[in-house]
Amino acid sequence: MPDSFARSSRGQRDARQWGLTRRAWAKASGFDDIDLSKPLIGIAQTWSELNHCHIHFRELAAAVKRGVWQAGGWPVEFPTISLGEFHVNPTTMLYRNLLALDTEEMIRAQELDGVVLLSSCDKNIPAQLMGAASADVPAILLTGGPMLTSRWRGQTLGACTDCRRLTEEFRAGRLSAEEYAELEDALARSPGHCMVMGTASTMAALSEALGMSLPGTAAIPAPDSRRLRLAEAVGRQIVETVRQDLKPSRLLTPAAFENAIRTLMAIGGSTNAVVHLPAIAGRLGIGLPLDLFDRLSRSTPLLVNLRPSGQFHMEDLFEAGGIPAVLRELLPLLHGDCLTVTGRTLAESVRSARVERREVIRSLEAPLAAEGGIAILRGNLCPRGAVIKQSAASPHLLRHRGRAVVFCDQDDLEARIDSPELDVRPDDVLVLRNAGPVGGPGMPEWGSIAMPKKLLEAGVRDMVRLSDARMSGTAAGTVVLHICPEAAIGGPLALVRDGDLIELDVPARTLNVCLSDEELARRRAAWRPPAPKFARGYGKLYIDHVLQADEGADFDFCRALRPPAS
Ligand code: FES
Residue 319 is inside which H or E element, if any? Predict the structure, then answer.
């Protein structure tokens, strides 16, 4: 019996009162001695009526349980907190680390032999992977799948890329109030997560690349019956994964993270992964510097033609062969010998995958772009780096010099962005600060700064925008994010004033404010930090311990204490 079986059996076999009560209370729930002798498989349940993307998770958990029973395990469902993107204020990211703590501690405290992680909506996936990595108990991540695409007035809609696009049209006066209300009824027509290559789709894809999900998990649409059959297969597999003692620390190696980063670049994935992957890796003592993202991006072609970088939706990716077909294409650039939750290598797992629709998944020989979707910038405005999704930016703005129009925080932006008096031109650079991990707090998705109304009315749809915030993976535009260090702790972004010249050069990977070191030093001497937004409770804990974006915005006390043994 491998060590991991001993986790639950320690308590089941205990001859003292602790063992007696543990067995008695399990029997009170209807389980018998045969059940109690099996490996205990937890199902970390994030179902919530305040999280639409997880609304079908009870059915999914029931299917996982069938699989666990079939394979000789004892499945038990337990709740953790759930983060629904549109129901949590000010941002779900403020609570990602809390969900990670909840997941880690409940896996450990409940002495599970293995765990199936159920999640979908943006922050839930990285949070569960962070928690499972720290608990280091065999785990498989099962996502809930993407929503079906929507239809409205002859258009195929993808959330939330079209939520943003059509809101801009409404603000520009090109959509009536009636049409906007009608859109609300059509936008999300099934269970599941956003069906473009947003953060949820990205993190589900990266979980496959990391070897933490069964092949094919990411793209099966949420209402498709194949997802229920996948859930049963996950239930059977986790028992085997426990038998083989395939802990996250055996799968989540530096090579596996390189595979995930290359996959991120090839799918045109969300910039949020540039925060989440270092956070997951940090739980295992593995460093993922931003320069590694840039190096791998430069040598990984963009293969997947999905919105917001491209044309299609997750349903199309599913029909095209899903993430296994993408990984099969990418194999020459991947570490194919990385182990996965199935006990097979990544290369073995995707060997039989085939690309069925070449317009959705391109080949290495004929990619959509020679480089990956994300670039890392450096300069006097971002000494520790900044991120841009070049695949979703306007090509003519990738080299740009313009006047700064500065908003000191999100409240200031909301108060002035639609004002007819705002002094702004299409070639200006919008700057938002105090929206980072400490300043937000929680690094909200405010980075895709709303376009000024008067420019929208004039037909302008994109301009260069900068901030220390994040942006939704479903958003597009020439948007520089995660500027590090952030303004609230005194990063150079705090020193920019209206009218300063900003220079962005994505091909050269630079972002600078045209000010001398002496002028920056003068301004820094006069700078005072903004008042913290929390004085007690979880918010205070968060502000006091959150790391910067380049380190994954995890809590300093949650990272591994030492690097993994080689
Ligand atoms: Fe949940 Fe978009 S709102 S993934």
Answer: helix 314-320
